[in-house]
Amino acid sequence: QLVVVDLVAGEARLVDVPGPVVDPRPDPTGRRVAWHHDGGLWVVELDDASTARELAGSQEPLVRWGIAEFAAAEEMDRDRGYWWSPDGDALLVARVDEAPVPRWWIADPAQPSTPPSEVAYPAAGTANASVTAWIVGLDGSLTEVPWDAEAWPYLVGAGWDAQGPMIALQPRDQRALDVRAIAPATGASDSIHQGTDPVWVERLPGTPARLDDGRLVMGRDGERGRRLIVGGEAVTPDDLNVRAALHVGEAEVLLSANPLDDATVVDVWRWSKDGLERITDGAGVHTAAAGGGTVVVRSTSLDRDGVRTAVIGGAELASLAATPLVRPEVAIRHLTERRLATALLLPSAPEHDGPLPVLLDPYGGPHAQRVLQSRGAFASSQWFADQGFAVVVIDGRGTPGRGGPWERAIAGDLASGVLDDQLDALAALAEVEPRLDLSRVAIRGWSFGGYLAALAVLRRPDVVHAAIAGAPVTDWRLYDTFYTERYLGHPDEDPAAYERSSLIADAGKLERPLMLIHGLADDNVVSAHTLQLSAALLAAGRPHEVLPLTGVTHMASQEDVAENLLLLQLDFLRRSLHL
Amino acid sequence: QLVVVDLVAGEARLVDVPGPVVDPRPDPTGRRVAWHHDGGLWVVELDDASTARELAGSQEPLVRWGIAEFAAAEEMDRDRGYWWSPDGDALLVARVDEAPVPRWWIADPAQPSTPPSEVAYPAAGTANASVTAWIVGLDGSLTEVPWDAEAWPYLVGAGWDAQGPMIALQPRDQRALDVRAIAPATGASDSIHQGTDPVWVERLPGTPARLDDGRLVMGRDGERGRRLIVGGEAVTPDDLNVRAALHVGEAEVLLSANPLDDATVVDVWRWSKDGLERITDGAGVHTAAAGGGTVVVRSTSLDRDGVRTAVIGGAELASLAATPLVRPEVAIRHLTERRLATALLLPSAPEHDGPLPVLLDPYGGPHAQRVLQSRGAFASSQWFADQGFAVVVIDGRGTPGRGGPWERAIAGDLASGVLDDQLDALAALAEVEPRLDLSRVAIRGWSFGGYLAALAVLRRPDVVHAAIAGAPVTDWRLYDTFYTERYLGHPDEDPAAYERSSLIADAGKLERPLMLIHGLADDNVVSAHTLQLSAALLAAGRPHEVLPLTGVTHMASQEDVAENLLLLQLDFLRRSLHL
Which of A107, A540, A546 faces B116 most closely, judged by CB atoms? Predict the structure, then answer.
């Protein structure tokens, strides 16, 4: 069943439809709802008693209408597969055919009677899902939107606004972006924007989008900060780094951005014909959502627990969140001539006054920052600090907020520069913080951070004396096409980039304690990463520890698992650093 | 292709048959060969150019003719599913239907693109394969051998001798054994022996069998040693424990047996109308094979490396085996009033002269002994001893060689008595060997020994300070019907026996280092045992280590894996005992 809630009237009603209902979305007029079900795109009218009907469907089991395939949802920042027309009489729909994609099996070996699930996993160098776009009318019409899918296989974005439907496409090497306006009656399309980059084109989240006057809103990278482009003109200065178009209105854009020289503070800005203004306070981390003339801002900062949510010009929303048991005290510095954002957390208790063992606690990879002016981001770090560590969190090259060249500095090699920045910032911090005991340094991380932790202990045992690698990538050939090939290219074309960046061949170098943690149900960074590294370590006679997490996916978010993981990591650190 | 080798003529020829060929066996006349292929039983005549033909087959995918199902091969000491008639014109054939058996999946999570294999695993309390017996004529005739399969579901043995075909059956609770002689023309059968036991009937390996005069050769348990029974009469004394009928000839039986009070020495004996004589030397471990008037004896002992193989009254076969790098020096004692067989191995190097940390190195479960007068059995133990340990190997109650009551002492509880015997013998040994440092005691084991190691560290952390559990059973409900129900009954009827004997509920008690090792391809003790215990330990916040072995089944016999496993275990022991 669909539950339809009328917030204005304060009423809810139930609509009988076949289930399960995936990704239901009302049309802009509020008269009907579409959703994905069993390979097809379904719709029901809310204002009469008609039954749900399938607008587009398929008999082929691997073809689905209206969903975002794995790479789109995980890597393209596109979590949907259909877009309503403004008047609700048609939709732009992605048709996804996963038949070409290699099948992987994700089993639960702790429950041998549970059949393994089969997933279409586009590992680097293998075939992607075949994605096409269609105009689907409520009258039952199906009109394909043809393009050269051989050259432009990736549908990275789409939308349908007052000017009509549009799509954004990228080639497999991601070095170009083509935005095309579609004539909905015929499916024919014209390019309205083409961008290129010798390394890769980074699509600004929230774009492409259009103002009511038809001007296209995009992002563009140069030598300094990422800029917002409206109608082909840069409307932000190059010392501001634009992070996303949060909302594109009739004649204005809400954007999030940070000073190019300080990615730890993120403000919301408004651009309109009257110019650019910052609408948040220049400290902390802010984002916004807008609609119906209302702008809601969500703010976190270092001087306050939790999240503050407020309507601009209106009330603050009460937060019922509990106060965390740990109280992060975060000192942020920008160290070395590269201005590496570095957070230091020390034990809260005064008895810890001697030299402190160091725990590096990074993510360190593209598309995610750890060093932000947001207290809640440091809760786990402070917990470790309170156990008697100097916890150090560093964002190095490749992480967001420092502009295009900074992000692209990792192209072809995800290992050496990333690792150098961690160790350079640590050395610089130790010069100004003599309490750091560099003879006892551990590192922990999850996902890319897990990769970085394993990388550090394998390649720099002189500096890093123990590592906890959670859900790490260990062989980039086992990670997905869209992410991995953006940084390392196609493995057939640049195998050396994969060799440089992967860890399996380093197994014989391990001479420090290493704990590998991996969810066996992880269908993003599959547990094969950890198991293959463990097998290589065994084959090299290198002791190490593995903690396989039963029923856990890429994020070990189950409360009891997460809490106990902290305890087991602490035990490992104490054993390994002889504390 | 079949390769047919004529050893007398010294010739080999190839016969084209459809493959794969499983379990090929020539008939007693040497004129034809049968084998299992693709669910069917196939035969080819060797003396003409005729092609292979399927004698019995099935369209049902889970029905197979002529194979031994999992429980038969793993637990019943029956590794075959068909038996030739003496003149080679018919066969007694088992038809196995695995449709009732639950499906389990064994995946290789290190290779996610490899499809998981589906196995029919009869876990305790679940359905077994349905096995029927058939007389299959070379003329194409199929005659079922009917019996009350509801009451007697287990076909534990079979054969076809000069008196005709026969089968041995057991009920699900294994408290009876029925041997039935079959009329091959009709399939009708008559019981020629019925045995019962209030706990379980232990079928003597090599039986049932018949002498040429028709007398049935069986085993029988009493209050003391297991005895050989010929024609209903015991022909061995009750201070000798018979272990197997190695060969049943026209009018004689070769058997293996040990003195009831010393299971560490195993001799070959010959029984005939002239009485019982020991034909090996009363020291070491001997076994024999016979045929065509020749008896070959295979011998190992504590004073010699490797295996000695000799024809009785003839030549010794040269052994080309390399001399092991370690030279076990084994001191065997029988300790406590229970006369627990206990082997002690000390470091070879003289510099180890202080108190020694102790490594218990048991198996400890039914159907396998560790303390035998056989040097090669102690190679790994001596290797550990040479690293600076006093290695102690103990066989307690439930292990073979000490007679029926000793073996049945574990019924209903695989844990407490088994563990007590280990710790009692260790305490007794320490009284006479003051070099044992009881403040540093570790235990390692594989399979049942892995179970015992985990059991010991969980329940007796006062005595055992670290454990390495390889391929352990942790929840007896996950082990198979025929083995587990023999000792613990049906889990629905005696759930308490399963609670007592299983380890998952003990996870919260762990306070000592525990390393779990398990082959992820193990289809006997599946890796779920280790993963479920690890998950329970994590849920209880108990630190532990796991070493998942990629591509490794129940026995980690790959040379590089086995060698490196030793190194990683040693590293764990040194860390855990602070050596």
Answer: A107
In angstroms, the separation between the Cα of residue A301 and the nearest Cα of chain B is 32
> Using H for helix, E for strand and C for coil, what is the string for A112-153?
CCCCCEEEECCECCCCCCEEEEEEEECCCCEEEECCCCCCCC
Token pair listed for A101: 């994609």
* Mean pLDDT in residue range A342-350: 94
**ipTM, interface predicted TM-score of the complex:** 0.92
Distance from CA of B417 to the nearest CA of A (A): 29
Q: What is the mean pLDDT of chain B?
A: 95
Q: What is the pLDDT of residues A220-233, one digit of tens each?
A: 999 999 999 999 99
pLDDT band at B49 (very low <50, low <70, confident <90, very high): low
Q: Residue B123: is its pLDDT beyond 70?
A: yes
Which residues have CB under 8 Å from B254's CB, separation 6+? Answer: B245, B246, B247, B268, B269, B270, B279, B288, B290, B295
**Mean of the pLDDT values across residues B398-413?**
98
Inter-chain CB proximity A547 and B540 less than 8 Å: no
Instruction: Provide, as residue numbers in chain B, all residues whose Cβ is less than 8 Å from the Cβ of A116.
Output: 105, 107, 116
Distance from B491 to chain A by nearest Cα, in Å?
A: 18
> Which residue of B533, B537, B550, B577 is the best one to mutate when testing the A interface, meaning the one whose CB has the most A CBs within 10 A?
B550
B127 close contact with A: CB closer than 8 A: no
pTM of the predicted model as reported, rounded to 2 decimal places? 0.95
Residues in chain A: 579
Secondary structure, 3-state, A35-70: EEECCEEEEEECCCCCCCEEEECCCCCCEEECCCCH
Is 70 exceeded by the pLDDT of residue A501?
Answer: yes
pLDDT of res. B15: 85
Residue type, A490: H
Q: Which of B477, B545, B559 to mutate to test the interface with A (most CBs of A within 10 A)?
A: B545
Task: Give Rg (Cα) of chain B.
Answer: 25
Closest by Cα among A507, A401, A422 to A464: A422
- Cβ neighbours of B107 in A, within 8 Å: 105, 107, 109, 116
pLDDT at A49: 67
| CA-to-CA separations, B314 to B269, B286, B293, in angstroms, rounded | 18, 17, 12
Which of A113, A504, A563 has the most B C-beta neighbours within 10 Å, making it the best mutation to test the interface with B? A113
Q: Does A289 touch chain B (CB under 8 A)?
A: no
At CA A337, angle to CA A333 and CA A340, rounded to 5? 40
For the segment B330-347, the average pLDDT, to the nearest whole number, is: 98
d(CA B396, CA B214) in angstroms, rounded, equals 39
C-beta separation of A538 from A491 below 8 A = no
